[in-house]
C-alpha cells in the first residue's frame, strides 16, 4: 500500500507514522467535527498524516441495549462532511457485505473488524470496492495468519491494504500486545498498532467493556520503537458522555502531548 494513494492524505513525505484517530462511534455532527478539527490542528503542527476514524454503526455490542448508532446513512453523511470540511480522508468499519458498497460511497478506507477478518465474503466485498482496506487482526489469530487475509484483498486486484493489530486475548478479560508480530505482519502489508483497543478489558460481568487508558502512552511508545507504520487511537473530548468504548479511549486533551512524544521517538528511531 502506498500512502500517497489515500485521497487527501497530507504530510505523506514527512517520514512520520500515520494516524487513524477519532471517536469510537459517530454520535452526532457537532462532536465529529469538533474532534476532527482538534486532531487535525495537532497533526498538521507535527506533520503526521491523518485519517479521521469513526464507526457509522456498532454491530458488535455486548448488550442489546448498548449504543449502536444514530442511523447508517446519517452517520455516513457526517463522515463525508468531515472529509469535505477539513480535506482529510476517513475510515469506518463494516460488518456485512452490503455495508461495503454503501460505506464506499462516503469514506476512503473500509475497515474489517477483528472478529470478522476471517469472513471471506466480507473481505472480498470491501476489496472489490477499490477502496483501501484495513484488516484488523483477530484477537484469536496469529500474526502469520494475517497473510491469508491480505491475500484475499490482493487477489481481488486491490493492492491498497493494511493490517491493524488490536491485541490478543489473554485469558477471558484482558488483552496483550505481542510486539514480535509487528515485523511479521509488516512483511505482508503496512502495519498499524491500535493502541486503545489493545488496552480493552472485555467480558466484564456488567456487559460494558473495561480498559486501561493509563497504559496508552506505554503501548504507543513501544509501537513506535518497533517501527509500526501507523497508530490507531480512539479519542473523545468528554469521556463521561461518550456512548461507546469510553473506558479505553484517550481524553482528547492529552493527545497533543502524547503525539509530540511519539514524534520525538520516531525521529530517534529513524536515525538508527
TrEMBL record:
One of its GO terms (cellular component) is cytoplasm. Residues 14-264 form the DAHP synthetase I/KDSA domain. It catalyses: D-arabinose 5-phosphate + phosphoenolpyruvate + H2O = 3-deoxy-alpha-D-manno-2-octulosonate-8-phosphate + phosphate. It is an enzyme of class 2 (transferase). GO terms for molecular function: 3-deoxy-8-phosphooctulonate synthase activity. Pathway: Bacterial outer membrane biogenesis; lipopolysaccharide biosynthesis; Carbohydrate biosynthesis; 3-deoxy-D-manno-octulosonate biosynthesis; 3-deoxy-D-manno-octulosonate from D-ribulose 5-phosphate: step 2/3. One of its GO terms (biological process) is lipopolysaccharide biosynthetic process. Pfam families: DAHP_synth_1. InterPro entries: Aldolase_TIM (IPR013785), DAHP1/KDSA (IPR006218), KDO8P_synthase (IPR006269). It comes from the Bacteria. Its EC number is 2.5.1.55. It is found in: Cytoplasm. Its main location: cytoplasm. PANTHER family: PHOSPHO-2-DEHYDRO-3-DEOXYHEPTONATE ALDOLASE. Belongs to the KdsA family. This is 3-deoxy-8-phosphooctulonate synthase. The lineage of its organism: Bacteria, Pseudomonadati, Bacteroidota, Flavobacteriia, Flavobacteriales.
Amino acid at each position: 500500500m502506498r500512502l500517497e494513494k489515500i485521497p487527501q492524505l497530507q504530510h505523506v513525505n514527512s517520514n512520520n507514522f500515520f494516524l487513524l484517530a477519532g471517536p469510537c462511534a459517530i454520535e452526532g455532527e457537532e462532536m465529529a467535527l469538533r474532534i476532527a478539527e482538534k486532531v487535525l490542528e495537532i497533526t498538521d503542527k507535527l506533520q503526521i498524516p491523518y485519517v479521521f476514524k469513526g464507526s457509522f454503526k456498532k454491530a458488535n455490542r455486548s448488550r442489546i441495549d448498548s449504543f449502536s448508532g444514530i442511523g447508517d446513512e446519517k452517520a455516513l453523511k457526517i463522515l463525508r462532511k468531515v472529509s469535505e470540511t477539513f480535506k482529510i480522508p476517513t475510515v469506518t468499519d463494516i460488518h456485512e457485505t452490503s455495508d461495503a458498497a454503501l460505506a464506499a460511497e462516503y469514506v476512503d478506507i473500509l475497515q474489517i473488524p477483528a472478529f470478522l477478518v476471517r469472513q471471506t465474503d466480507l473481505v472480498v466485498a470491501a476489496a472489490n470496492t477499490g477502496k483501501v482496506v484495513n484488516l484488523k487482526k483477530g484477537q484469536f489469530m496469529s500474526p502469520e495468519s494475517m497473510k491469508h487475509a491480505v491475500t484475499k484483498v490482493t487477489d481481488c486486484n486491490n493492492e491498497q491494504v493494511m493490517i491493524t493489530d488490536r491485541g490478543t486475548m489473554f485469558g477471558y478479560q484482558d488483552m496483550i500486545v505481542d510486539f514480535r508480530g509487528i515485523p511479521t505482519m509488516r512483511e505482508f502489508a503496512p502495519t498499524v498498532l491500535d493502541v486503545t483497543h489493545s488496552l480493552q478489558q472485555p467480558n466484564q460481568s456488567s456487559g460494558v467493556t473495561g480498559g486501561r487508558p493509563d497504559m496508552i502512552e506505554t503501548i504507543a511508545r513501544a509501537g513506535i520503537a518497533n517501527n509500526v507504520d501507523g497508530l490507531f487511537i480512539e479519542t473523545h473530548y468528554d469521556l463521561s458522555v461518550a456512548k461507546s468504548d469510553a473506558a479505553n479511549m484517550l481524553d482528547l486533551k492529552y493527545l497533543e502531548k502524547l503525539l509530540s512524544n511519539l514524534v520525538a521517538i520516531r525521529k530517534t528511531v529513524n536515525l538508527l
